[in-house]
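Hi support team,

I've been running sequence recovery on a batch of backbones for a student project. Most finish fine, but this one hangs at about 90% for roughly twenty minutes before it completes. I'm not sure whether the input is malformed or the queue is just slow. I've pasted the structure tokens below so you can try to reproduce it. Let me know if you need the job ID as well.

Thanks,
M.K.
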């Protein structure tokens, strides 16, 4: 695996495909979140594109992050999501598309009450390799990647914009706190999700 490479090793030529709604490689990200990898070098031989889907139950989120080297588009197939994009907050409903240029901060949250489904598209298929490294096929136990994939992960991590959390290739933004705020007792979360 060459997670750090902008080019993915190609085993076969890209082949035309009609990928039905339930087609693709079913995986469980970090042992808890179902994803479906539909178009990439493994599934259809794509050299320049990665497309996958994800189900987001009410309350689920994708934390604020940014991708250093990839552009991404997220299509909201069903449901409604609260979107934080480049410092702006908005609600996006079924049928909306969010375009995320490289190095742009993005985060999603499903406010409920309905389950949302998203389709994500990346201009580089290498991201799919890393999703595979941090996921398993349905029914298999998840273990953090071992030494056999350590070199590939190290190469990819060298490109990361921050720590690995629930997703790969992301950096989480944490606002700076004043010393008095650090020493103050914790309060309940307010309407904007921050302590009041």
């Amino acid at each position: 695996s060459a997670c750090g490479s902008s080019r993915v090793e190609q085993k076969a030529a890209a082949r035309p495909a009609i990928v039905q709604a339930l087609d693709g490689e079913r995986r469980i990200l970090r042992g808890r979140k179902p994803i479906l990898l539909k178009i990439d070098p493994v599934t259809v031989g794509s050299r320049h594109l990665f497309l996958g889907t994800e189900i987001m139950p009410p309350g689920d989120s994708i934390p604020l992050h940014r991708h250093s080297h990839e552009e991404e588009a997220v299509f909201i197939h069903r449901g409604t999501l609260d979107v934080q994009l480049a410092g702006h907050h908005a609600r996006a409903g079924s049928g909306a598309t969010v375009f995320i240029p490289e190095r742009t901060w993005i985060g999603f949250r499903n406010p409920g009450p309905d389950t949302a489904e998203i389709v994500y598209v990346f201009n580089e298929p290498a991201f799919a390799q890393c999703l595979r490294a941090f996921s398993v096929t349905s029914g298999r136990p998840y273990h953090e990647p071992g030494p056999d994939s350590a070199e590939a992960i190290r190469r990819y991590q060298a490109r990361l914009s921050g720590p690995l959390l629930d997703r790969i290739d992301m950096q989480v933004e944490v606002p700076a706190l004043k010393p008095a705020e650090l020493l103050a007792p914790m309060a309940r979360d307010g309407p904007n999700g921050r302590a009041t």
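--
Follow-up from support: It reproduced on our side and the slowdown came from queue contention, not your input. Residues 138 and 172 are 28 Å apart (CA to CA). No action needed from you.
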